[in-house]
Amino acid sequence: MFSPQGPSLRELAIQALSSVERGYDLLAPKFDYTPFRTPESILDAAADALRPLGPFARGMDVCCGTGAGMRVLQPLCKGRITGVDFSTGMLAQARSAHPDAEWVRADVLALPFAEAFDLAVSFGALGHLLPAERPALFAGVYRALRPGGLFAFPIGAPPPITSGWYWALLGFDLTMRVRNAVWRPRFVMYYRTYPLHAVRNDLTAAGFIVTTVPLAALGRREDGSPRCRLVLARRTGTP
């Protein structure tokens, strides 16, 4: 649909009627040719915002997919970098693109690490978690970080109600809710379930000290506020 190398409408339909894991296994070989991959502009803006806070030792990409986040971790981390995902297909693509990184298949709601990393990043993952699942993710990332470690991820400002994007995202989420109400297995993918205030509250409850920085390179809304912010969640304790 999106390019000659991208998935067909039929392939997308099969993916959408599968579970999240199976759907991404199917989509993995063509995922990087879809709009679902995190854009280079967001990766570059996040890297620019994190650079003054580094360098870091070991880094982890949570819900790494095909490994786009390695573009951020590689120049910032002096030690080993690790990607974590539950899709075997996505990890295979990531391993092929970045053979020098470490790749771990795991449920991100039960991360198998303890005080192993100094920086954790995530791109485009929160929409695949229900709000009730966020505390488990954030608690696992907190455990995986060393004291003083940083968890960073971008979060976009909601489009105004007058914007076509507002209604497009609302329509998509409503369609997914109907699909999940009448079809099993569920495919969890929503765009409006992780507002900044709710994410901040969950991070704080997990023990993080939370700040944000605007990603100015991604532009501003009509009211002057940034279109996108980088959430910086610092694990408490002395590095």
Automatic annotation (TrEMBL):
InterPro entries: Methyltransf_25, SAM-dependent_MTases_sf. It comes from Kribbella antiqua. Keywords: Methyltransferase, Transferase. Signal peptide: none annotated. Pfam families: Methyltransf_25. This is Methyltransferase family protein. PANTHER family: TRANS-ACONITATE 2-METHYLTRANSFERASE, TRANS-ACONITATE 2-METHYLTRANSFERASE-RELATED. Residues 60-149 form the Methyltransferase domain. GO terms for molecular function: methyltransferase activity. One of its GO terms (biological process) is methylation. CDD domains: AdoMet_MTases. The lineage of its organism: Bacteria, Bacillati, Actinomycetota, Actinomycetes, Propionibacteriales.
